[in-house]
């Protein structure tokens, strides 16, 4: 009897193992070797499976478009402010920002550039329909939307983020020898923001016809910011203060229109006095990365540190900027900071570091509208009071996420026009070789080496 029971159990075990062997491959995730073989097959697929050529061509042509609706506006001069907005995909925040910009006094004197890493018809139309200032839209030609299955997006044979270098070398994924300072591999959705910011800076300063000869201030803001009606008025006063300080041998490199320390809901004893205050201090990225200005002189210094910016193992553009100040410029940058911000951060969800499931995208904007209405009489005061603050050297620690040599190389090529990048960068040239003539619609000969 016992032997019979054991025999039946053995038969059942054999049947179960056989069934598992038959069906398990359909349900178990691919192992590294299977992933490798799948990657090989996919990497041999056509270019259509790797990137969107038609979208790339549309974006290049859109960027080259020189027309601006200037019929109702005066031409841009060096006394005017250029506002550059970095846009991703948070439409509601962007609409709130545009609404706040439309209420700014003197806004018709500015040029507003919206720089996108996503081509989205709804977002584009929400910008096009505005006629309160000169507006230009530009599009990042190396976005993950275009290059969706190949670098600068995530390539099929890129190493998984947390695989570890030993295993990465075993499966021979493409960037196995390039983990970051913390042992992780690149993620395209993380690297894109730094790429976009640096490309935007080069493109606006060196290539965009409307701005490449502009010697005034460029103000950098983002889609989830919200501005005060006296933004331009305050900027003009700060420019005069910078000029006065220069005459007394105090150099101001940057004007900072926002800060993170001010709370509009916190009671303020003397708001009129606070509205006048400017702090003179050293620029530091974590405090002063919101709504700061760069002029042509400062840009000349920053671009000379391109290698340090592009090779620093940190996916944050602002931390990378701080790095080049510390190690390349080797000189602190002085900034005037308005104590009561004229640019506020309104984005509480939907960003890279904000993952709230439920969020009222109008919440902060509504609070700011009430603050502006309550203190309207103090916004346009023609007076400033400067207070000097000292701050010592602050050592920064890199955050990783930026160790792939492909990112370093591409980042250092943004000084070139985009078509020259495609010709000089072997990776892009290999993908686009048969279609480059379609991109160069004017059939101009490039001076670059193929």
Question: Please, could you describe this protein's structure?
Answer:
The chain has 450 residues and is α/β, with parallel strands linked by helices. The chain has three domains: 10-35, no CATH class; 47-415, Spore Coat Polysaccharide Biosynthesis Protein SpsA, Chain A (Alpha-Beta Complex), CATH 3.90.550; 418-450, no CATH class. The protein is built from 18 helices and eleven strands. The strands form three sheets. It has a five-stranded mixed β-sheet, sandwiched between helices. It has a four-stranded mixed β-sheet with strand order 6-9-7-11. Helix 4 (91-102) packs parallel to helix 5 and helix 16 packs across helix 17 (426-432). It starts with a helix and ends in an 11-residue tail after the last helix.
Structure, briefly:
The chain has helices spanning about 1-25, 30-45, 55-65, 90-100, 120-130, 165-170, 190-205, 230-245, 270-275, 285-290, 295-305, 305-310, 315-330, 365-375, 405-410, 420-425, 425-430, 435-440; strands at about 80-85, 110-115, 135-140, 220, 225, 255, 275-280, 290-295, 335-340, 345, 385-390. It is an alpha/beta fold and about 450 residues long.
Would you give the CATH topology of the largest domain? Spore Coat Polysaccharide Biosynthesis Protein SpsA, Chain A
What value does the average pLDDT take? 87
**H/E series:** HHHEHEHEHHEEHEHEHEHHHEEHEHHHH
Net shape = globular
The end-to-end distance, rounded to whole angstroms, is 83 Å
Largest sheet: 5 strands, mixed
Q: Which residue ranges are poorly predicted, with pLDDT under 50 across at least 5 consecutive positions?
A: 19-44, 445-450
**What portion of the residues fall into strands of 2 or more residues?**
5-15%
Rg from Cα: 26 Å
Strand line-up across the major sheet: 3-2-1-4-8
- CATH class assignment of the largest domain: Alpha Beta
Count of separate structural domains:
3
